[in-house]
Amino acid sequence: MRIATWNVNSIRSRIDRVEAWVQRADVDVLAIQETKCREDQFPHDRFAALGYEVAHHGLNQWNGVAIASRVGLEDVSRGFPDLPQWGEPAVEEARAIGATCAGIRLWSLYVPNGRHITDPHMQYKLAWLDTLRVQTQAWAETGSPFALMGDWNIAPQDEDVWSMEYYLDKSHVSPPERAAFQAVLDAGVTDVVRPHTEPGDFTYWDYQRLAFPKRRGMRIDFILASEPLAERVQGAVIDREERKGQGASDHAPVVIEVADA
């Protein structure tokens, strides 16, 4: 089975490319982030025509997460307990959706950006990640296969950014963010993509300043799996080619190959 995650940066703007890619990549399940639409605006019909069921969680033109599956889609959860809120008035944003696909519990996650080290949004980000840590530990204790997939807005290692000097005073690489990411790992999951990639294999390149052709990217999209699932992962790839061309998302899809149980 092929499972993927992809921040598409607006599903309505990107649907033609997503449609073509899922067929070309032959993925069974796709976790999507930044759908940037309400439920009534999501292109369910385009996925259905390709044989995918979709569960979507979107409230407005910001954030939004989804899971598309052609191997079953059961027990859908939008968010998880005790998630912190943000905004005026404060609300629980559309940043997490879970579903069981072919016996594997999968979560599509869009972790808050944090904006800047001193921004209040950074405290929201860290609180959000700590809530995820608590949930991850509880899920890991069940001994069942699951994965946390998505845009984490964190580059946990120096090799995950094109220049640490450039990012030293910016978000995504700060010690508190990296500690929060490590805490999730320590709660019972492992990065199942890194063993199959090399330093400099990034997943995100800004649209500005010719970042993509200059290879000025970051690795911030991850698939973290529990041990029962991690031991079934046979391969992984970051599809950098999908970042090329007109109308591309600023993120590349990340794919893992999972053996049957």
Automatic annotation (TrEMBL):
Chain positions recorded as Mg(2+) binding sites: 7, 34, 151, 153, 250-251
Gene Ontology molecular function, alphabetical: double-stranded DNA 3'-5' DNA exonuclease activity; metal ion binding
Active site positions, chain numbering: 110, 151, 251
Domain Endonuclease/exonuclease/phosphatase: 4-251
CDD domains assigned to the protein according to its UniProt record, in alphabetical order: ExoIII-like_AP-endo
Keywords: Hydrolase, Magnesium, Manganese, Metal-binding
Alphabetical list of Gene3D superfamilies matching this protein: Endonuclease/exonuclease/phosphatase
Site (Interaction with DNA substrate): 251
Gene Ontology annotations of biological process type: DNA repair
Site feature: Transition state stabilizer: 153
Requisite cofactors: Mg(2+); Mn(2+)
PROSITE patterns: AP_NUCLEASE_F1_4 (PS51435)
Tree of life domain: Bacteria
UniProt remark on cofactor binding: Probably binds two magnesium or manganese ions per subunit.
Site (Important for catalytic activity): 221
Recorded family membership: Belongs to the DNA repair enzymes AP/ExoA family.
Protein name per its UniProtKB record: Putative exodeoxyribonuclease III protein XthA
Gene source species: Knoellia flava
Lineage: Bacteria, Bacillati, Actinomycetota, Actinomycetes, Micrococcales
